Amino acid sequence: MFIYFNHYYYYYYPILSISLTMLFYNICINIFYMNHVIVEHIKIIIRFVMNYLKTFFQQSFQHHHNHHHQSYRNRQKQQQQQQQQDFLFQSISNYRNNRLKCK
After folding, report:
1. Which is the most buried residue in 27, 61, 75, 94, by most CB within 10 A?
2. Which pLDDT does position 65 carry in this prediction?
């Protein structure tokens, strides 16, 4: 009986061990993933709440964040203008080159 049991135990052991480790990893990953998802949701909710509050307490928020946002916006504007100029210049030069080729 003991030998019989051992034989079956050794026969099934790899399958058992693999399935158990898979289960363990699966559970771990699920926990971590759920944790991650929950954190992301909390972040999003906080963002919404902050935006909602911002409409009411704009002045206090503005005082704190004004400088950073202003500089960021200015940078963005400059970048956009630069991109537009680059695009314009590129298109003009392309047009000129094409015209020259055609002649």
Report:
1. 61
2. 62
